[in-house]
Design brief:
Layout lengths: L17 H14 L7 E7 L4 H6 L9 E7 L6 E7 L4 E8 L8 H12 L2 H9 L8 E7 L13 E8 L11 E10 L5 E6 L37 E4 L2 E4 L2 E8 L3 E9 L2 E15 L11 E3 H5 L19 E8 L5 E23 L4 E18 L2 E10 L4 E9 L3 E3 L9 E5 L2 E4 L1 E11 L5 E11 L12 E7 L17 E10 L5 E8 L24 E5 L21 H5 L8 E13 L9 E13 L23
Antiparallel strand pairs: 1-2, 2-3, 3-4, 5-6, 6-7, 7-8, 9-10, 10-11, 11-12, 12-13, 13-14, 13-23, 15-16, 16-17, 17-18, 18-19, 19-30, 20-22, 21-22, 23-29, 24-25, 24-26, 24-29, 26-27, 27-30, 28-29
Bound molecules: cobalt (II) ion.
Length: 636
C-alpha cells in the first residue's frame, strides 16, 4: 500500500494503493457531471467475486475495481460509483437521495471552529466565567435521527463541551454541562446553541500526560521479547502465512482491519471477517444526553481513525507493520504509517500431561499470531486484536481504553444514570455494542448453522439418579429462526458445519462460535436510536451470503432511519441449510464507569471465539517441538 506496488504483485483482495485511490478519484472527477467539485466520502476496493479470488494464482493479471462515494455540500444524497482501475473508466453510478455521508475527521475540526466562533456560544462561555475560548474544546457527535423538522435532509452534528485549565490540561476533567450546539456539517451553520442549567464546571486537576506526572515508578525492570532467529511468519504483500494458517489482510476506511480467505492447513474457515458496526448508546435522559448514541463504524469510518503505531510502545517484540492508504475528503490520499501490527506472542502452555505411573512429563508451549490496529474515536481508543492460535482457534478481542466521556454533576449528587468518578465529574452508564460480520466457509461455502444447548433430563426411570444431562442441537434452518439470543443458562453456542465434509467419526467438520461478551440492550427498539440499532437486539443473526449486505445497521448509517440493515436482510427469511452463510455476532461492553476509569481508563476487554469442533480429527498440536527455551533462567 505504499503507492508503488506493481499491479501484478497485488492479490485481488489487496487494499487499494495510494495510486489506485488517486486514480479512482480522477476517473470520477472527469466522468461525472459536477464531479470536479465533489467531496469524496470513501474510496474502497470493490471486492471481486469469490470465484475470481479463489482462481487467482500469484502473478496472475487482475482486474481492479473500486467503489467511490461522492457528495456535494449544497445538496443531500450520495452518489455511489463503481470504477474500473484496470480500464480507467466509470463502470456504474447510483444516486442515494436520502443517504448522508459519514463525518470526516477534518469536519470534526471545522465544526469545533464554527461553534466556537458563534456569538451565542461565546456569550454562554462568558456567562460561565470562560473568557479564553482557546481553552474550550467542542466534541462533535453524529446526531442520529430524532425526527426534528429543521434537521431533515441536512448533515447534522451536535456537540458537547469541555474546558482546559491550561494549554495541556486534560479537557475531560472539566465538562461544561448543559452547553450544547447543533451544527450543519456541510454549511458550518450553527442551528442552535443551548445553555441550560448551572452545574459548576469541576476544576480539579486530573491529568495523565507525562508532563504532569510528578512520580514515576522505578521498580520495573525491562521485559524484552526477543526472537533471535527471526519471526515464524511470512508476509507477501498483504498475504500472511504463519503456522498452518494463511490469510489475506485487508483494510478500508469504514471497517478498518478486515481479514479474508482464512484457512488452516489449506482448508477454508472464513471467507471474510470484520467488525462491521459498533454502536454506543448512553443511558441518561437528561438534557441533550439522549442524543449520545453513535455508530462509530458507519457514521465516522473507524479505519480513518486508526493510529500510527509505535514500536516498543504499542507493540512489543519483533514487529511487522503494514501502512494503510485512505482517501481524504477532497480526494487526496492520507497514508497511515504502521496502521496494522503483526507479531507473535507466547501464550503459555498449549498442553501438558504428567503420567504419574511412568513418571514422564510432556509439555508444549503455545504461541499466537496477533493482527491488530488501534483507533481513536474522540475520547476513546479501541484496540482490535485478532488472534490465530495453533490449535485452530480464532479469537477476537477489543481493548477499550482512552477516556470515558464525562459530564458534570453537583458534587455528591451523581443521579441515577452515572457514576461520580471524581468530585463533580460524572461518567454516564453506556454500552459499546459491536457486530462482527463473519462470512463462514467451513471446509467450503456450503455450511449449516445449528444451535447447541445443554439440558438436564428429568429424574425418572431413564435417569434414576438425576445426573443425566446432554447437549441438544437445533438446526437454524432459515433466517428468521436464526436470529438468536445467547443463553448462559444452557451454555448456548452456535456451530457452523460443513455440508460436504466429515471427520474421522463421520460427523460434519465444524467451527463453533462462542459468545463470551454478550450485552443486553437497554435502549427501546421503538426509540429513535433503537430503531436504527436493530442488530443489537439479537446476539446472533445468520444470513444467506449476499455481497451487497455488508453492514448490520445499513449501507448508509449517518442520520439513517433504520429501514436498511439486518432486519431488512432477514426479511426474506431465506433458507440456510447447506448454503453460503454469513454469521453476524453482536457482542460488547456494558460499561458502568468506575472511579478507576478516570482520568484515563485501563483497558477493558470483550470479544468472541471461533473454535474448531471436529474440524480436526484429533488435538492436532502433538507435533509442537519440546525444546526448552534456553533464554529462560532462574530469577534469583
Ligand atoms: Co465505555
Amino acid at each position: 500500500m505504499d503507492g508503488t506496488t506493481p499491479i501484478s504483485e497485488l492479490h485481488p483482495l489487496s487494499p487499494l494503493t495510494a495510486d489506485e485511490i488517486l486514480q479512482a478519484v480522477g476517473i470520477v472527477r472527469n466522468a461525472i457531471e459536477d464531479g470536479a467539485g465533489a467531496k469524496i466520502e470513501m474510496v474502497e476496493l470493490a471486492e471481486p467475486d469469490k470465484a475470481v479470488v479463489r482462481q487467482h494464482s500469484p502473478g496472475d493479471p487482475i482486474k481492479r475495481e473500486a467503489w467511490i462515494n461522492i457528495y456535494h455540500t449544497d445538496r443531500p444524497g450520495v452518489l455511489r460509483c463503481r470504477v474500473s482501475l484496470s480500464e480507467d473508466a466509470l463502470v456504474s453510478q447510483k444516486h442515494y437521495p436520502d443517504a448522508s455521508p459519514m463525518i470526516a475527521p477534518v469536519e470534526f475540526m471545522e465544526i469545533e471552529n464554527a461553534v466556537k466562533a458563534d456569538p451565542r456560544f461565546i456569550a454562554a462561555c462568558k456567562r460561565r466565567g470562560i473568557d479564553d475560548l482557546s481553552l474550550v474544546t467542542v466534541d462533535p457527535w453524529s446526531a442520529g435521527n430524532f425526527g426534528i423538522e429543521e434537521e431533515q435532509g441536512r448533515r447534522i452534528s451536535h456537540v458537547f463541551c469541555w474546558v482546559r485549565n491550561e494549554e495541556n490540561d486534560h479537557q475531560y476533567a472539566h465538562p461544561i454541562d448543559g452547553l450544547n450546539a447543533t451544527a450543519d456539517i456541510n454549511t458550518g451553520e450553527i442551528l442552535d446553541v443551548r445553555d441550560e442549567g448551572d452545574i459548576p464546571i469541576p476544576g480539579g486537576e486530573w491529568n495523565y500526560d507525562r508532563r504532569y506526572q510528578k512520580v514515576v515508578r522505578e521498580d520495573l525492570r525491562p521485559i524484552d521479547v526477543v526472537q533471535p532467529e527471526g519471526v515464524s511468519f511470512t508476509l507477501e504483500g498483504h498475504r500472511l502465512k504463519w503456522h498452518d494458517w494463511e490469510l489475506q489482510i485487508g483494510f478500508n476506511a469504514r471497517e478498518g482491519l478486515t481479514l479474508h480467505d482464512i484457512s488452516i492447513g489449506g482448508r477454508p474457515i472464513l471467507y471474510r471477517a470484520s467488525i462491521a458496526e459498533m454502536m454506543v448508546p448512553y443511558g441518561s435522559p437528561d438534557g441533550r444526553h439522549p442524543r449520545k448514541n453513535v455508530f462509530d463504524v458507519g457514521e465516522y469510518g473507524i479505519g480513518r481513525l486508526v493510529n500510527s503505531l509505535e514500536l516498543g510502545c504499542d507493540c512489543l517484540g519483533a514487529i511487522q507493520y503494514l501502512d494503510a492508504s485512505l482517501n481524504g475528503r477532497d480526494g487526496e490520499v492520507e497514508t497511515i504509517k504502521n496502521a496494522i501490527c503483526l507479531h507473535e506472542e507466547d501464550m503459555g502452555i498449549m498442553w501438558k500431561h504428567y503420567d504419574f505411573r511412568l513418571d514422564t512429563t510432556e509439555v508444549r508451549r503455545a504461541r499466537r499470531m496477533v493482527i491488530s490496529t488501534i483507533a481513536t474515536v474522540g475520547n476513546y481508543e479501541y484496540g482490535y486484536y485478532w488472534y490465530l492460535h495453533m490449535d485452530g482457534m480464532i479469537e477476537f478481542e477489543i481493548k477499550a481504553t482512552g477516556v470515558i466521556n464525562t459530564t458534570a454533576c453537583m458534587p455528591g449528587q451523581p443521579g441515577p444514570y452515572g457514576v461520580e468518578v471524581v468530585p463533580g465529574v460524572l461518567g454516564q452508564i453506556h454500552q459499546h455494542t459491536f457486530c462482527a460480520r463473519l462470512d463462514m466457509a467451513v471446509d467450503g461455502d456450503a455450511n449449516t448453522a445449528v444451535e447447541c444447548n445443554t439440558e438436564a433430563e428429568p429424574m425418572g426411570p431413564e435417569n434414576p439418579y438425576g445426573n443425566a444431562y446432554r447437549m441438544i442441537e437445533t438446526p437454524l434452518t432459515n433466517e428468521l429462526a436464526a436470529a438468536r439470543k445467547a443463553d448462559q443458562g444452557t451454555h448456548r453456542y452456535w456451530k457452523f458445519k460443513s455440508a460436504n465434509k466429515t471427520g474421522l467419526t463421520g460427523q460434519p467438520t465444524a467451527y463453533k462460535l462462542i459468545p463470551t461478551s454478550v450485552v443486553t440492550p437497554y435502549i427501546s427498539p421503538e426509540g429513535p436510536s433503537g430503531r436504527r440499532a436493530g442488530y443489537t437486539f439479537k446476539d446472533l443473526w445468520v444470513t444467506a451470503f449476499d455481497p451487497d449486505q455488508r453492514f448490520p445497521a445499513g449501507e448508509f448509517v449517518n442520520g439513517c432511519d433504520g429501514s436498511d440493515g439486518i432486519n431488512a436482510y432477514v426479511a426474506g427469511d431465506r433458507d440456510l441449510v447447506g448454503k453460503d452463510l454469513v454469521a453476524w455476532h453482536t457482542f460488547g461492553l456494558h460499561h458502568i464507569p468506575r472511579p478507576e476509569d478516570f482520568p484515563v481508563q485501563p483497558c477493558i476487554t470483550c470479544g468472541f471465539k471461533l473454535m474448531p469442533v471436529g474440524f480436526f480429527d484429533d488435538s492436532n498440536v502433538r507435533d509442537l517441538p519440546w525444546d526448552k527455551n534456553i533464554a529462560s533462567c532462574h530469577a534469583s
